[in-house]
Every structure is written in C-alpha cells, then in structure tokens.
Amino acid sequence: MQLVIGNKNYSSWSMRPWVLMKQLGLPFEEVKLRFDFSPGSPFRQAVARLSPAGQVPVLVDDGGHAVWDSLAIIETLAEADAAVWPAERRARARARSVVAEMHSGFSALRSHCPMNIEARLPEVGARVWAEQAAVRGDVGRIEALFAEALQASGGPFLFGSFSAADAMYAPVCMRFVSYALPVSGLTLAYMQRIAAAPGVAAWIADALAEADFFGEDEPYRTARTPHGLSTPHTPHTPHTLAVPGTPETPPG
Prior knowledge:
It contains ten helices and four strands, in the order E-H-E-H-E-E-H-H-H-H-H-H-H-H. It is mostly helical. Strand 1 (2-5), helix 1 and strand 2 form a beta-alpha-beta unit. The two termini are 28 Å apart.
C-alpha cells in the first residue's frame, strides 16, 4: 500500500492520514511529490495519473486502486483497523462529528494561518489575531471542542487513545505554534502530547529536514531563513514541539 503525499512542511491534508498510519503501525510506502502547481508540472502529472481530483494525499492499495481525500482515506483505513475510531459507540460518533467539522470548517484559520511547521511567525499571528475576528472564532471553537473531548475521555488524546480525531487536528496544533496564537493551558498541554506522539514527531522531523521553500504556501515570507518576516528559528528536538511555558507531557 502506498500513500502519496506533498511537502511535509506545508501539506496539512497529507499529514493527517500519514501520522494516523504511523501512529497505529499500519504498513505503507510513502511516495512524496514536491509541490509544483504550474501547468504540466511533474507534480500535476503524477497526481493526475492517480486521482481525477488532482490533489494529495492519495492512498493506493496493492492492486492499484486509488482513494483520494483525507477523510475518505481515513474511513478506508478504518475498514482494516478498528483503532482508527474510538471503540465506544457514542465516542465514535462524536469523533466522526469533530473530524467532519475539521474537514469542512475553520476556513479562516486555514486561510490566514497556512501550515508551515518550520516557520516561527509570532508577529504575523498577532496581527491576524487582532484583525481577523473569524480566526478568533475558529480558535475559540477548536478550544471548546478540545476541552469537551478531553474532559469526557480523560485524555491523553481527544478520545483517550490516539485516533483519527487527533490526526485531523494535528496540523491545527502546528499552526497554533507557528503563529503563536493565544490558547489555554489545557490546549497547550494537548499540543505537547500531540507533538510527542511518535507518528507526529516523525512527521515534524521530516518537515524540518526538507530544506525546501514553496512560495505559493508562503504568504508571509520570501525565503526559508530568518531574513524573511519570520523570527529566528528555534531548533526542535525530534520528539517535541516547543510550546513556551508548558511542560512536555508524555503520550499515553
């Protein structure tokens, strides 16, 4: 089985099924295609051969059958591994609800704060926070969602064990860090647990190692260096996401 993805620093939709499969120990071969959205590019040609949607990620089974869209891939994985979703019926239904909400919503946060794991853009985050009420609304709803799920499950992840819900919101945690958006202590602690989860930590390490710069996903910088609008980069360790003032909590 192959999972076709884009750049790890930028591709939030690729991140979601990848970290889920890694975290659950599902075997797959990674096929990474460097973003290039120009007409006739190798990226466009390769994806078009697999998916009429022309986007990543794409899951290709051993028989060559392709499934595209992160949520469709997650549901396909769930047919083979029940651990994708919570075991209890009501928790499973709620997890599907919050995953669908992520899949179709939070457009302001996604638009104004595109995923960029390597970057540190606190000044951009402060400006977006001050100027974009819709972003503040998105973050407020996400924080309420996190709090409700963690209170009901007892943690350490949204529904107890790591599930599709955590994989879907992992890129949100990346955004919160990159743009230094103001969030509660409960959210900060959850972000640390997400970053420490082996599947997510592996993705972060790979994203930092890419040393690639894709201008179409960089509305706030001109280069992957401190000479753009970003502040100087603080190195990560492979297993943690640096959230100031919050102790790292080991994953459960």
